[in-house]
Amino acid sequence: QVQFVESGGGLVQPGGSLRLSCAASGFTFSSAIMTWYRQAPGKERELVASVSATIGSTTYKDSVKGRFTISRDNARNTVYLQMNSLKPEDTAAYYCNRYPPFKGSWGQGTQVTVSS
What we know:
The chain is 0% helix and 47% strand. It contains no helices and 10 strands. The relative contact order is 0.32.
């Protein structure tokens, strides 16, 4: 079955950096648009960044452009999110999935907390 295992979150001060990883299985990873989503308490889940299947083109939510970088390793079925210059408003649980997402197949997420 489809599975996602996210890791790399933590507590970081404003301006700090984190690198998230997501190991995927149960589908043809190399053919899928892979996406990072996040959900803050009391808010809906939102799309943060996507990377295309083959040529690796990327798209980002406006508020993270220039600070976050999404990448993928098709040999390892893994997608990454490098997050720099973190802000308190980036605090959320971060999830990866395909785009469009496999409904009902979300991982446990990884919590990112940006606070001094």
